[in-house]
Design brief:
The protein is α+β, with helices and mostly antiparallel strands and 183 residues long. It has a single domain, classed as Gcn5-related N-acetyltransferase (GNAT) (Aminopeptidase). Helix content is 31%, strand content 34%. Strands 1-2-3-4-5-6-8-7 form an eight-stranded mixed sheet, with helices on both faces. A hairpin with a 5-residue loop joins strand 1 and strand 2. Helix 1 packs across helix 3. The longest helix has 16 residues. It is globular. The relative contact order is 0.15.
Length: 183
């Protein structure tokens, strides 16, 4: 799925745009993924895992997302640079096609500027417009209080916990919390 570009103003007054990812930005997207995973332990990858992508494979991935009827990726650009992205991924099985997973990430310098809220609003709107998605689902990692607050503000609620689901390099084990939002 693709969205039409949406221009908005950040809390600090800078202009920003939400749009479908541009395949020609594949190299910048890889740099963004590496940097975002360097800045927090609350994403599922480590930087070296993001470095395994090639420009060609990332370009193909972005093109497939834009062409998909069941997946939506939104990228936020601030002053021409990738600030964050989010995705909506619908389940493919008949019994679970009413469910869709949500993922979101932002570079640290763009935290608390309203981007996360705007991206989630667009994902929710896209799910509502489809009409056949009844439930959005996401997971967040223990300790990520900012993400939890955003998700709760957007109508998600905790439905379960996966104890010790995340193991950091130093051996620290963290719970992963499951959240849902009904459409």
């Amino acid at each position: 799925m693709k969205i039409n570009p949406i221009d908005f103003t950040l809390k600090d007054g800078r202009p920003a745009t939400l749009c479908s990812p541009k395949p020609e930005d594949a190299e910048e997207m890889i740099r963004y993924m590496v940097r975002s995973t360097e800045e927090t332990d609350f994403l599922l990858r480590y930087p070296e895992e993001a470095l395994t992508y090639t420009v060609e494979s990332e370009r193909a991935f972005l093109e497939s997302r834009n062409a998909s009827e069941d997946e939506l990726m939104i990228t936020c650009y601030v002053q021409g640079k990738i600030a964050g992205n989010c995705a909506l991924m619908r389940d493919s099985h008949i019994k679970t096609r009413h469910r869709a997973s949500v993922a979101i990430a932002l570079l640290k310098e763009y935290w608390n500027l309203g981007i996360g809220t705007r991206m989630l609003e667009q994902l929710i709107r896209a799910a509502e417009q489809r009409g056949d998605i009844l439930q959005l689902e996401l997971d967040y990692i223990e300790g990520n209080v900012r993400a939890r607050a955003l998700y709760e503000k957007m109508g998600f609620r905790i439905t379960g916990v996966k104890p010790d689901a995340i193991r950091l390099k130093d051996g620290t084990l963290l719970n992963e919390y499951m959240m849902i939002r009904k459409i």
